[in-house]
Amino acid sequence: ETGVTQTPRHLVMGMTNKKSLKCEQHLGHNAMYWYKQSAKKPLELMFVYNFKEQTENNSVPSRFSPECPNSSHLFLHLHTLQPEDSALYLCASSQVVSGNSYNEQFFGPGTRLTVL
Amino acid sequence: QKEVEQNSGPLSVPEGAIASLNCTYSDRGSQSFFWYRQYSGKSPELIMSIYSNGDKEDGRFTAQLNKASQYVSLLIRDSQPSDSATYLCAVGPTGGFKTIFGAGTRLFVKA
Predict the structure, then answer these.
(1) What ranges make up the beta strands (E) of chain B?
(2) Which of A64, A82, B38, B49 has an alpha carbon 20 to 30 Å from A37's alpha carbon atom?
(3) What is the pLDDT of residues A77-107, one digit of tens each?
(4) Contact status of A69 with chain B (Cβ, < 8 Å)
């Protein structure tokens, strides 16, 4: 248990559905991340939030919409996804200190998403 | 050129042997380096971080960093079957939040 929780753990959705993934961190960290992990491919950074402000958007399609209401919660809203979006979606958090990059990230268990 | 390169494996070692996992990176300005372990069906777990040249030891794990050669490695001594997993090398930039992950090396420890 890393102190980062994600719900749901598994999600099956059709291409016309709208769903949301939720992440919560109990570590007092100031940065939160969404990653996509597909089979045989490296982890792909999708979004980064630092103190609730989005600092990275890694050219992610608009059918993925992040929301960070506070530094402990992160959502990923999904709509009109494609079958190739099926993957493991991982949330992570870290404590970032200004002026250094000692960015140890702690991951949640992930949401296994299947798009039919 | 991939930003962080790892041999995909699988790397197979007998129980009790030393497993050596290697990683190279392209950004010469990188400042932070991490090794994560990921069991099948699970999320990555941070096992080592290293920030300066040389060796860093933690139990059976030793991380080695050579910034001049842009090379980082992980040694696992007295390998156990429970060490069988995919090991991800990750490299952080000079400041900022964008950590780049390698595709991982699968390690199999034979009992």
Answers:
(1) 4-5, 11-14, 19-25, 32-38, 45-50, 54-58, 61-66, 71-76, 85-92, 100-101, 105-110
(2) B49
(3) 999 999 999 999 999 999 877 665 567 899 9
(4) no
